[in-house]
C-alpha cells in the first residue's frame, strides 16, 4: 500500500507539469501565428556609388568582372545602402535578357561600355548585393 501511495505522489506532479507544458506550447504557437500576420516588406539593397577601377577581368562584352574601390556612396532615404566608401568590391554586370537574348537598351549598352574602361578611371553606378551571388552593377549612371 505504501508503494502505491508513493508512486501516486511521484506521478501526479509529473502529469500536472506536462499538462502545463502543452498550454505553454499552445500559447507560443498562437503568439507566433499572431506575429506573422504583418509580414516585413523586402526591399532590394541599392547603393549609388562612385568607384575607381582597379582591374578588369574581361572575357567578353557581357562577361567581365571589375575590381573597384568605392570612393563615395550617396545616401537615399527610400533605398538602403550597404556599400562602404574605401572598400574594394568585385562587381559584375547585371545584363537584361529576354528568352536568352540580350535586350538592346540603354542599361545594357552602358554596361558594355563600362567593360572597356581603363584602370584608374571612375564611374558612377547603382550596385547591389545578391545573397550568395555577389555584387552586381545594376545600372551605370555616368562614366
Describe the structure.
The structure is a single chain. This protein is an alpha+beta fold. It folds into 2 domains: 1-39; 47-142, OB fold (Dihydrolipoamide Acetyltransferase, E2P) (Beta Barrel), CATH 2.40.50. The chain contains 2 helices and 7 strands, in the order αβββββαββ. The protein has helices at residues 2-35, 106-114, and strands at residues 47-60, 63-74, 88-93, 97-98, 101-102, 122-130, 134-142. A 5-stranded mixed β-barrel has the order 1-2-3-7-6. It has a two-stranded antiparallel sheet with strand order 4-5. β1 (47-60) and β2 (63-74) form a beta hairpin. The mean pLDDT is 81.
The overall number of domains is: 2
- What's the CATH first level of the largest domain? Mainly Beta
Approximate strand percentage = 35-45%
CATH fold group of the largest domain: OB fold (Dihydrolipoamide Acetyltransferase, E2P)
Instruction: Indicate the structural class.
Output: alpha+beta
What's the average pLDDT?
Answer: 81
Order of helices and strands: HEEEEEHEE
Features:
2 domains, 143 residues, 5-stranded mixed beta barrel, two-stranded antiparallel ribbon, 7 strands, alpha+beta, 2 helices, OB fold (Dihydrolipoamide Acetyltransferase, E2P), single chain
Briefly characterize the structure.
It contains 2 helices and 7 strands, in the order H-E-E-E-E-E-H-E-E.
Blueprint (SSEs and pairs):
Blueprint: H1 2-35, E1 47-60, E2 63-74, E3 88-93, E4 97-98, E5 101-102, H2 106-114, E6 122-130, E7 134-142
Parallel strand pairs: 3-7
Antiparallel strand pairs: 1-2, 1-6, 2-3, 4-5, 6-7
Amino acid at each position: 500500500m505504501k508503494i502505491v501511495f508513493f508512486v501516486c505522489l511521484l506521478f501526479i506532479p509529473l502529469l500536472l507539469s506536462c499538462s502545463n507544458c502543452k498550454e505553454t506550447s499552445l500559447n507560443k504557437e498562437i503568439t507566433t501565428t499572431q506575429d506573422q500576420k504583418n509580414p516585413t516588406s523586402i526591399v532590394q539593397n541599392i547603393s549609388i556609388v562612385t568607384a575607381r577601377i582597379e582591374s578588369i577581368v574581361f572575357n567578353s562584352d557581357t562577361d567581365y568582372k571589375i575590381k573597384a574601390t568605392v570612393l563615395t556612396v550617396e545616401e537615399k532615404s527610400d533605398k538602403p545602402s550597404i556599400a562602404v566608401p574605401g572598400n574594394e568590391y568585385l562587381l559584375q554586370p547585371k545584363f537584361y535578357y529576354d528568352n536568352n537574348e540580350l535586350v538592346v537598351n540603354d542599361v545594357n549598352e552602358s554596361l558594355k561600355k563600362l567593360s572597356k574602361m581603363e584602370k584608374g578611371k571612375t564611374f558612377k553606378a547603382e550596385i547591389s548585393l545578391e545573397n550568395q551571388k555577389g555584387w552586381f552593377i545594376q545600372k551605370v549612371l555616368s562614366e
